[in-house]
Amino acid sequence: MLDVKNINVYYGRRKVIKDASFQIAPGEIVGLIGPNGAGKTTIMKTLLGLTKFTGTITFDNHQITAKDHKILQRVGALIENPAIYPFLSGKENMELYSKDREDMQKLITRLEMDSYINRLARSYSIGMKQKLGIALALLNDPELVILDEPMNGLDIEATISIRKIIHEYANRGTAFLISSHVLSELQKVMTSVLILNHQEIIMDVPIDKFKNAKVTHDQLQTTDMAGTRELLTTHQLAFQEQDGALVINASDADEIQRLLYQNGITLQMLMPIRKTFEQAIIEILKEKRGDKK
């Protein structure tokens, strides 16, 4: 659906996006991740034809340029802050863009905005404005939806509701590009990950790469922790202490179990330690920062 090849974006003489290339397929939910200033919002604006760039962007075989905004007819977007008119009601804001009033009303109800949709948008809370911005992005069944920090200002119930709606649209073939600093929430919806650092895309992989990451350490507890520590030290098997347990190399687990059995120590727990998604991303960014030095 979307094919981005070697795009470069400049602010004056400063290059803010460097040779970015990626693809998004129908129904795919892509998470765009990176530190502040990495260029996430710039990439999103560039996809909408809002910034000048070099390289090529093709949407459904149609090439996008900074002068050609036809893409906006088939793409929904929420970039930075909801683009709403404060002196119109929420419903009037939606009516400006809606091509199907029945679809519009379904979105209002689905996002639980019925109680305030006829009030002037200037009276809305941050969360209400955010919901309205998301509703505007989802109007008219877009083929691609671009969301920049969509969970800002939303409570837990609204966040769960938005997550379900994203899945529903994706199941119908709508593609999503979502940027968020709330990685735990992003992990629950995305099917692939784009990591941006120093204005470059440093990783473009399915989310399963993180879910199926190799386990390198195990957590160990026994009926005789003092004896276990002595045993591992004697056999020069590395370990660290953490929260009343021992952290061992996963590659040593079989040898350690054999030694415990031979020395009459009962194993109570042997559990793999898996990195959280946030930990994995932080490590990747740290490694890349080291490469730049």
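Next protein, fold it too.
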Amino acid sequence: MCNLYRMTRNVDEVARLFDITGASGANFADEVYPGYPGLVVLPDRIASMVWGFPLQRKGAKGQPLKPKPINNARTDKLGGGFWRSSFESRRCLIPMDAFAEAEGPAGGKTRTWFRVPDRPLFACAGIWRNSDEWGESYSLVMTEASAAVDGVHDRMPVILSPEGESVWLGADPQAALGLCRPWEGPLSIERTAEPWTKSRKPEQPSLL
């Protein structure tokens, strides 16, 4: 699953690249974690939303707990009740510079970054919805890993080609589902010594 990505472009740059009206004052950090704001592109606007659909939880005594962000949606589950409405009618693009996976032994995992080498900013498939808990929130669509990612994780985000971006946003669900496949283009891999968890501990990510 993907539970960390990097997006270093500002709103105006993203607006120019995707030919969309900018969203002034959008709040997001360069590194995006589950449960925190990220930038998404919709057909008619750019918006800051929380990464992860809120899932209600209860404690051992039935007391309400802080919702859990379900930040990854498996391609083979998009027809299920949790995701269906968003997939059919509320798809979005998630712009990013790179996405990361954890690699290494337990307690010593480090960050391995994946990029599309000829595209400093690329878009991945996402879905979104309104929620009572966090307002607008989004989830990243995941598919089987390509050969480049498979040695690190068995799944990866659905990376869209420039031509596929408009299909994802505007086509019927069946055409959009046809885009949910491993990335066939090249990926650059950067293995780092960065600890997977830094000073700010992210929310525990989830995938349905």
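About the second fold: Residues 95 and 123 are 4 Å apart (CA to CA).
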